[in-house]
């Protein structure tokens, strides 16, 4: 059985516990959400002593299953007020799993203002004073800790935004090349970590593939098949592998679903300037990398390393970030995108939410659309903790409230990613209904709406979107529990060999006889648990909705509105 | 039958309609809440086109019933997200009622940025361009409009805070002496008015007592009895009449329930310096008034006129304001209280919420506790629309979110008035459960907890508080529907002649045979309607709660906590 690393910050004790039997077949999101449900009072203050930060590798993390090293981070979100799971690539999931640690639970709150770091290795866990790291950006913290504990350790950390309890602060960890910016960005879990006064977690092991596997041969065979599935799929084997996620920029723009100028239009004339193709060209020309693996054993390598004009490196620039800090602000300067991305990474903010917030501030006239330098200037205020900087760190809904703006693209308090719900209605259903708030990964209907993966559902029509989102939300909850990167979904949707291969890996690792039906049940169970937490926290059907303007305002160029009503949306969880 | 003045700002048409029969026996809060329930979609954006601002005189307003000129203002609150009614003294309730107008409904939203005023007289209603008034403070607006339309008109207006859609902006109206600061302050209804681009409503009549009364003789007889009840009660006839509401300062302080330093303690050493006794002394010495009637026909005259050192006048300074801007900020300087009050009045902010917000900002270290000059300086930023100014205008919960403060005294998003729920537990029950959010007037348990009016319930114990709050909330909903000042409750609670006299006035005016039971039923019906609106807007039992710190942190000097749990609180609406 695995271990739980429980860090009680009230008593300042870090100890390893046996994993309770009931958690033995849970991992990743399934485990973080279950522990949050079991241990966190749904009505607690997210930044108070009763919330907990739960970190878990996926079921397959730490094995040689390709692309299986996603790290899940969970808790009650200070942004949405509901349950939250955000996950990221990087090395720490594999390292935790290699140490046999199934979950880290950080609870309580110290009575002093001191900061700590948690160090865990095969020898055990320690809580170490870390006041010297307080106030430092994530780049510096990671550099310092890699020097202190060795180049091979994994580092989970927060930036000053998390320390300052900003509701959009993320939790980051490092990749195999020491880049510190693999963010579990959404929903403010960095502020939860900050509220516990834990600045960093050092996972001290060189191993990435040390998780125990019961039937190694069967596992290897399945992993080979699954690797092949990923390599031969046109998206995971070709598109993502050549240009990374930002290959979506031109595609989403062409289809008229690219939120431009704070979701006022679906087409940005200069989208090409911040596209994956352009990014690859500039990165390579400057000696960076157009493709890069965020974790050992990934075959998609959709990440990148972008050298900036000032000599620093931004790694990676994802589609969502390029959109949020590009077209959403009418900014067509990729170097500005990189600069804004870098600042977010360093101070510790979610880039999607930051882009949404800056869009709202531009709508409010605080700074002009298209003025990248002005955006850099206000974003730098976050680290300085000025009132405007703190507003930015508090997210789009807060900024809308402060500046009297009703045109705020958010659901359940969380800013919306780069696919407008009026021109990619399947994603609109996901944004409205996901227990996570507006989250594209929670039910990525872009698959069937735009990429024609797993069939085709017209993105401009309401027909079929509820069913599409439902199935994707269930599948995603299951995938997020395995530690597999969500992009494996393309293969799962289009290649009949892919899902059986995943199940075969799970069965081989844990000695099970799971079926596809069991995977579906796992996904459903995760969603039910999350929704029940939210219900107890005070969420109702009224929260499963989009802002009024999506229903009222036509979205160019297709001039569509979001027309899937509350009754239809309520059918998403009809399972 | 009376009229409804319906102002459609989308079409820019103001017209008088016949009052629907179903509304004929509703007034004040009963009418605003019913119209909001009937006409406003509970899930709408409070600052969007679907919300409506509803203004209504009480059932007895415009008659010679003493102290019956409260004006109710209702809508969906941008602060709480739920239904809201806030009421105020002043002359406009009596004037509207004298014109036969039972309600004003402002709906829609103009497509341009132009501002308007609504003018209503016996000759009809007009919508008049008012761009010249935009951006002006309420003092200047009132002065300008009194000059333009005559000294006898009633003026309902908002300040720049309402224009800027700040969630704590109030709606004000003038008293008989031209003072413009009779605020329906709570819950941001000024922002709703601002969202409609209506800067002011001019009620053009000299009459205050022109409402139709069916049986004048019977009415006069009942009004005489009721007047006598108010005059002979020690609180309404003596305490309030001598020192105004701020007579409470020393009383609440002595009992240890005076929230001091952002609700960290219940006793303020220098409370006397901002007490009603001190206020009366200074006001009289400077040529102001220690007592003053906020409306014609009031026998309690608990208002005051406070001349400030700069030659301006603040009228009135209420207990709640003196507490919010005094002890809550550890400010013992009455002139600073007056200055802060004056700025709030002029820019158009709720003073209670502003005090709570400044307390939170002081807790966050944005400015020091006790530094009145610093408080004036930051409050002046509201009118300048700086980021910090806008945060202040957005209320205490927003400020807490922005600055990462969990010690925010608020319920349902609304800041808490000047009685700590740990040392005046009946008010705590009201704060937690009222459909209005933290509102002392919604169920003023100070009566039995502190003033021993209507019996005595130990303020430090949980026993009896739910029943006390329930009965007061029901009675208050009924009183708020009559247009009577809530302070008549003291007489109603202690003098067996008072309630029959109120009922006799209503019966005489409308030709009814109402009983005391009918009054209770009216109050219950109002609460049911409001709670149903909130339920449809997404509120649940989880919203009927107080912030965690009231349960966790002991409150000096009695070191009590709020210990009435969710199950007990859920019994408040068990009727």
List keywords for this structure.
575 residues, Aldehyde Ferredoxin Oxidoreductase Protein, subunit A, domain 2, alpha+beta, 3 domains, Aldehyde Ferredoxin Oxidoreductase Protein, subunit A, domain 3, homodimer, six-stranded mixed beta sheet, globular, Aldehyde Ferredoxin Oxidoreductase,  A, domain 1
Largest sheet of chain A: 6 strands, mixed
CATH superfamily heading of the largest domain in chain A: Aldehyde ferredoxin oxidoreductase, N-terminal domain
Spatial strand order of the main sheet of chain A: 2-1-6-3-4-5
Would you state the CATH class of the largest domain in chain A?
Alpha Beta
Oligomer: homodimer
CATH architecture of the largest domain in chain A: 4-Layer Sandwich
| Extended strand count of chain A | 17
User: The CATH topology of the largest domain in chain A, please?
Assistant: Aldehyde Ferredoxin Oxidoreductase,  A, domain 1
Shape of chain A: globular
| Radius of gyration computed on alpha carbons of chain A | 21 Å
* Average pLDDT number of chain A: 97
Structural class of chain A: alpha+beta
Kindly, what is the distance between the CA atoms of the first and last residues of chain A, rounded to a whole number of angstroms? 32 Å
Overall tally of structural domains of chain A? 3
Number of helices of chain A: 23
Largest interchain contact = A-B, 41 and 41 residues
Q: Tell me the β content of chain A.
A: 5-15%
Entry summary:
With 575 residues, the first copy, chain A, is an alpha+beta fold.
